[in-house]
């Protein structure tokens, strides 16, 4: 594959095993240099990355791991070995780049000097393996055109990243939308195009993994909302309120209302009504159900954030993968 404009790549991972091998192989001929940032893997990931020819950064174990920190340290190494580069493709270690993506993304990002991020369609490689994998594949089918945010896989303009200082290393989740928010505040544009971007291997086979992933989402909502609650856009403030309403306030009102009347339990009928409302709006049946049920683990994430703030400690990683 020959690409006129050179694109570097940063892949991040932790105990991804064969998924990482496939990830790095998918970058061959598409990106150079390739930087792999490892967050304390014990499965041979570092050795596999070096064998693939990637520049390897091993994070200092004395500081908390986050995906945001890994991406920032990858950017720092990239500035050392490729200071003149214009673009970087970010890729999570459980993903594989699709053929033709770099060319399609470059064509879009170079249309406008204010295009900072270009993302495409991330697909789950094994959606039929579990209902949780299927849900994730549906979740990533977002609208085309100018967007508010991207996910972990995207082509980015390095000058835009430098202007906003990259990602917030202390965020354990939600770091991409938060960074995109700061980019948009400076006039940069986030674009989603109709092109196949990456395969993703969620390997999410158990309800406990789904629960932890949603718990992490709830934590991300409230932590990012707390950072930007005074800004005009009030990023994720509305999402946090929905989590609090459906995951905490409504069930508490139904249970506490029993002290007055047993009819308070009728409040719980709001949940099947919400499932029906989402289904009628066009959500697949499974998605409507689990979006509604997902408010409960999200609420746990919100409570965890509050407890961490109250106790003066920092919430650690909330991982859903089996490693």
Brief characterization of the structure:
The chain is α/β, with parallel strands linked by helices. The protein is built from twelve helices and nine strands.
Please render the helix and strand layout as text.
Blueprint: E1 7-13, H1 18-26, E2 34-38, H2 45-51, E3 55-58, H3 67-81, E4 87-92, E5 95-97, H4 101-109, E6 115-124, H5 131-139, E7 145-147, E8 154-157, H6 158-164, H7 175-185, E9 189-200, H8 207-228, H9 237-256, H10 270-280, H11 285-293, H12 295-311
Parallel strand pairs: 1-2, 1-4, 2-3, 6-9
Antiparallel strand pairs: 4-8, 5-9, 6-8, 7-9
Question: Overview of this structure, please?
Answer:
The chain is α/β, with parallel strands linked by helices and 323 residues long. It has 2 domains: 7-205, Spore Coat Polysaccharide Biosynthesis Protein SpsA, Chain A (Alpha-Beta Complex), CATH 3.90.550.10; 209-311, no CATH class. The protein has 12 helices and 9 strands. It has helices spanning 18-26, 45-51, 67-81, 101-109, 131-139, 158-164, 175-185, 207-228, 237-256, 270-280, 285-293, 295-311; strands spanning 7-13, 34-38, 55-58, 87-92, 95-97, 115-124, 145-147, 154-157, 189-200. Strands 1, 2, 3, 4, 5, 6, 7, 8 and 9 form a 9-stranded mixed β-sheet that branches. Helix 8 crosses helix 9. The mean pLDDT is 93.
Task: Output the CATH topology of the largest domain.
Answer: Spore Coat Polysaccharide Biosynthesis Protein SpsA, Chain A
Low-confidence stretches: none
User: Average pLDDT across residues?
Assistant: 93
* Topology pattern, helix = H, strand = E: EHEHEHEEHEHEEHHEHHHHH
The structural class is: alpha/beta
β-strand number: 9
- Please report which band the strand proportion falls in: under 5%, 5-15%, 15-25%, 25-35%, 35-45% or over 45%: 15-25%
Q: Total helix count? A: 12
Termini separation comes to 34 Å
Overall geometric form: globular
Cα gyration radius (Å): 21 Å
What profile does the largest beta sheet have? 9 strands, mixed
- CATH architecture designation of the largest domain: Alpha-Beta Complex
Question: How many discrete structural domains?
Answer: 2
Question: How helix-rich are the residues, as a percent range?
Answer: 40-55%
Instruction: Output the CATH homologous superfamily of the largest domain.
Output: Spore Coat Polysaccharide Biosynthesis Protein SpsA, Chain A
CATH class of the largest domain: Alpha Beta
